[in-house]
Automatic annotation (TrEMBL):
Belongs to the HAD-like hydrolase superfamily. S-2-haloalkanoic acid dehalogenase family. It catalyses: an (S)-2-haloacid + H2O = a (2R)-2-hydroxycarboxylate + a halide anion + H(+). SUPFAM superfamilies: HAD-like. Catalyzes the hydrolytic dehalogenation of small (S)-2-haloalkanoic acids to yield the corresponding (R)-2-hydroxyalkanoic acids. InterPro entries: 2-HAD, HAD-like_sf, HAD-SF_hydro_IA, HAD_sf, PGP-like_dom2, S-2-haloacid_dehalogenase. Pfam families: Hydrolase. Keywords: Hydrolase. It is an enzyme of class 3 (hydrolase). This is (S)-2-haloacid dehalogenase.
C-alpha cells in the first residue's frame, strides 16, 4: 500500500525551461538551445562532482552550467543576462496540473513531499513562487549528504523522513535516470515522461508511465 508520494522537483513539478522562456527575447534566437545546454550541463556537473567526491551545492552547479551555456552560444559576456536568468530560476513556473494533483493526494490521506538535488533555500523559493507553500510538504535536499541522485543514500532520505519502508513510497520523476535510481533503491516509481522520450533503463512496461502528473492517483 502506498502511504507517501515523493516528487522530484526540477522538471517534474517545476518547468526548468521556464526561466529562459520568460526572458526569451533578451536571450535571442538561441534561447531554446541555451536552455537545453544549461539543463544538460547542470545535471552533468552533479554526476561528475559526485563521482569525483568534490561536492558543490546545486546552486553552484546551476550557476556554472549557465556560464557554460551562455558562452557556448555566444552570450558569455552578458553578466546582466546571467543575473536575469538566475533570478528567474529561483521562481520556476510549476506545471499546470501540479497543485491539483498534490491536493488530490492529500485528500486521499497520502503524504506528499519533495526529494531534490536542490538546496533547501532553492526549494523553499521554488515552492513559495509556485504557490505551494501552504501544502506543508517536507522539502528534502541532498545537501546533508554531499552527494547527488541517483546515489542510493539520497532515496534513503525520503524513507527515513517519512518513517516508511521503500515499498510504501511512490517516487515520481520526469528523469528516467532518476526513476531508475529510485526503483533500484526499492521505491515504487512512476515515470512522468513529459518529453515523450524513448525508453531507457528498461523502464517501459516495468513502471507506470504518464505524460504529466494527471492521472497519478489512479496509478498508485
Amino acid at each position: 500500500m502506498i502511504r507517501a508520494c515523493v516528487f522530484d522537483a526540477y522538471g517534474t513539478l517545476f518547468d526548468v525551461h521556464s526561466a529562459v522562456a520568460r526572458h526569451a527575447e533578451a536571450v535571442g534566437p538561441a534561447a531554446a538551445q541555451v536552455s537545453q545546454t544549461w539543463r544538460t550541463k547542470q545535471l552533468e556537473y552533479t554526476w561528475v562532482r559526485s563521482l569525483m567526491r568534490r561536492h558543490a551545492d546545486f546552486w553552484t552547479c546551476t550557476v556554472d552550467a549557465l556560464d557554460f551555456a551562455l558562452s557556448a552560444h555566444g552570450l558569455g559576456k552578458r553578466p546582466d543576462l546571467a543575473a536575469l536568468l538566475l533570478g528567474a530560476y529561483r521562481g520556476l513556473a510549476p506545471f499546470p496540473e501540479v497543485r491539483g494533483v498534490l491536493e488530490e493526494l492529500k485528500a486521499r490521506g497520502i503524504a506528499i513531499g519533495i526529494l531534490s538535488n536542490g538546496t533547501r533555500e532553492m526549494l523553499e523559493a521554488a515552492v513559495e513562487a509556485a504557490g505551494l507553500a501552504d501544502l506543508g510538504m517536507p522539502l528534502l535536499s541532498v545537501e546533508p549528504l554531499g552527494v547527488y541522485k541517483p546515489d542510493a543514500r539520497v532515496y534513503r532520505l525520503a524513507a527515513d523522513a517519512f518513517v516508511l519502508e521503500p515499498g510504501e513510497i511512490s517516487f515520481q520523476s520526469s528523469n528516467a535516470w532518476d526513476v531508475a535510481g529510485a526503483r533500484a533503491f526499492g521505491f515504487r516509481t512512476v515515470w512522468i515522461n513529459r518529453g515523450a522520450a524513448p525508453d531507457e533503463y528498461d523502464l517501459r512496461g516495468d513502471v507506470p508511465e504518464l505524460p504529466s502528473l494527471d492521472g497519478l492517483a489512479a496509478c498508485l
